[in-house]
Amino acid sequence: MACLKEVLEVLALIVTVIGGPVGAIFALCKWSEQIKNRRAEFVNRRSEFVYQIMQDLRFGKDGNDDIIKTRYLIEYKEFRFDENFQKSILEQEIDKYLALLNYICYLYETGAISQEDFDVFSYTIARTLYNDDIKEYLQALVAWSLRHDGAPCSFQFLIDYGRKHISDFNV
User: Fold this and answer.
1) Are 154 and 106 in contact (CB under 8 A)?
2) What are phi and psi of 127, to 5 degrees?
3) Per residue in 67-120, pLDDT tens?
């Protein structure tokens, strides 16, 4: 009887010694799998988000092609920053377009999108920031901010990107 008790104690010890690490390894594998799945979901959501912004820039948003028309006005140098611009419908459209580009620059600057994601937009941003009338408009916004005790400047992330990455961008 004592012998059976000792055998059962040894078996219980063996099960504990073997079972503990095996259970820990199993838990570690499951945890690692969950991390991989969450990362894949994050990358997928980010890709969908970047794709949606790209679609908006290329094809308009919700059937509205104003953003495309605005982009072409800038790219083909048909936009003029003059006395007729302020308080016009065009000012609203230019502001919407620049706000979208500013948001892309914000996402890039904060690391929410990768360099690879940002590269999808860099051409459009560069074409916009090379436009002399856009530069003049952004300079006016910076000047306004400075005159108003350093009030936040509209499109600051876009301006900062231009200062760092666009030659002859003197805003």
Assistant:
1) no
2) -60, -40
3) 889 999 999 999 999 999 999 999 999 999 999 999 999 999 998 888 988 998
Nearest to 162 by CA among 107, 84, 77, 105: 105
Q: Is the dihedral of CA 15, 21, 22, 27 positive or negative?
A: positive
Express each pLDDT in 141-160 by its tens digit: 999 999 988 788 889 999 99
Based on the fold, state whether residues 33 and 117 are members of the same structural domain.
no
Which is nearest to 117 in space by CA: 45, 166, 170, 14? Answer: 45
**95, 151 in Cβ contact below 8 A?**
no
DSSP per-residue letters across 98-142: HHHHHHHHHHHHTTSS-HHHHHHHHHHHHHHHT-HHHHHHHHHHH
> Which tokens is 85 given?
């611009």
Pair (44, 93) in one structural domain: no
CA distance 20 to 2: 27
User: CA-CA distance, 22 to 63, in Å (whole number)?
Assistant: 57
Domain containing 8 equals 1-59
